[in-house]
From TrEMBL:
NCBIfam families: thiS (TIGR01683). This is Sulfur carrier protein ThiS. It comes from the Bacteria. Pfam families: ThiS. SUPFAM superfamilies: MoaD/ThiS. InterPro entries: Beta-grasp_dom_sf, Mopterin_synth/thiamin_S_b, Thi_S, ThiS/MoaD-like.
């Protein structure tokens, strides 16, 4: 299935969860927030939240500074 991750098309197997996608992209532990089709998904549900073909996933990391 095709998932758009931060604006880039990526292919993943059907039934891939947000956590599995992060692991596949070596981003586990580096992402602070995720939104699927503009809806925030709580981090404690990432291991259960299955993505669907055509989903748009935005992954965010908060950076401090000033």
């Amino acid at each position: 299935m095709n998932i758009i991750v931060n604006g880039q098309d990526k292919d993943f197997p059907l039934g891939t969860t947000i956590l599995q996608l992060l692991q596949a992209l070596s981003l586990e532990g580096k992402v602070m927030a995720a939104a699927v089709n503009m809806d925030i998904v709580k981090q404690d549900t990432w291991s259960k939240h299955e993505l669907n073909d055509g989903d748009k996933l935005e992954l965010l990391d908060f950076v401090g500074g000033g």
